[in-house]
Amino acid sequence: MSNLEASPRAETSKGRNNILRKEGMVPAVLYGGEEKNELISISKKHLKILLDQENFLSNVLKIKIKDKEIKVLPRDVAFDVVTDEPIHVDFLRMVSGRKIVLEIPVRFINNDQSPGLKRGGVLNIVRRKVELKCPTESIPNELVVDLEGLDIGASVKISAIKLPENVSPTITGRDFVIATVAAPTIVKEPEKPAEESAEGAEAGTEGEAPKEGEQANSTDETKKPEDQKEKKEAAPEKK
Fold first, then answer.
1. Residues 95 and 128 sit within 8 Å (Cβ to Cβ)
2. pLDDT per residue over 12-69, tens digit each?
3. N or C: which end of the chain has fewer CB within 10 A?
4. How many domains, the chain?
């Protein structure tokens, strides 16, 4: 469980929040439970380290404010549209005995022990995250899928993943697929274009000069015999 140190803040004005950001702090709020919402600020440097983790929004943190420690869950992060820097965070207090809906990331192991992948198969990931309903006391950091022994055509369903006690998928009524081992895709190479020398190898190609002793095609040759006969009959007689 990661720790974050926070300082209380009283003002909520835009100007004061901008001053905090220039000082390397990020405004945040704690909410949930029976206590009132609490305004705090945290170090941007430490926050960005946690943001680099894939499961930041499903990772329970411990925030220390003066002498008290509070278990929280990040619920939302706002980023600057220009700099992409974090500018605000919402934290939910963890209340014992309650359940929460979270998207938990999926991690795949033992790829090198899958016969299907060894033979050129492809791991087709259907769900990189699974939405679960979890008690606040037992939120999994990730779901692990073991690919050992899986051959081409095999699929991994949610029932194959061991979930913590009292943790259940929000999708009910069907055993949905997490990933499959698909057959390799065969890419057919395009045919090579014919060489230029081969293109002109055939006699009588368009634009080629007629050989000696051969007549060039005339327009009359394309006409019907009847047309030529009519032309001959129409010619004036010689005197």
1. no
2. 788 888 889 999 999 999 998 888 999 999 999 999 999 987 778 888 899 999 888 8
3. C
4. 2
Mean pLDDT value of segment 172-184: 93
Both tokens assigned to 34: 């029976």
pTM for the full predicted model: 0.64
Contact call for residues 148 and 111 (beta carbons, < 8 A)? no
Residue 205 in domain? no
CA distances from 64 to 2, 67, 94, 126, 136 (A): 11, 7, 14, 38, 19
Query: How far is residue 69's CA from residue 29's CA, in Å, rounded to a whole number?
Result: 15
Residue 21: Cβ-neighbour burial (10 angstroms; 0-12, 13-18, 19+): middle
Distance CA 71, CA 206 (A): 84
Domain residue limits at 176: 100-182
Separation CA 228–CA 166 (nearest Å): 98
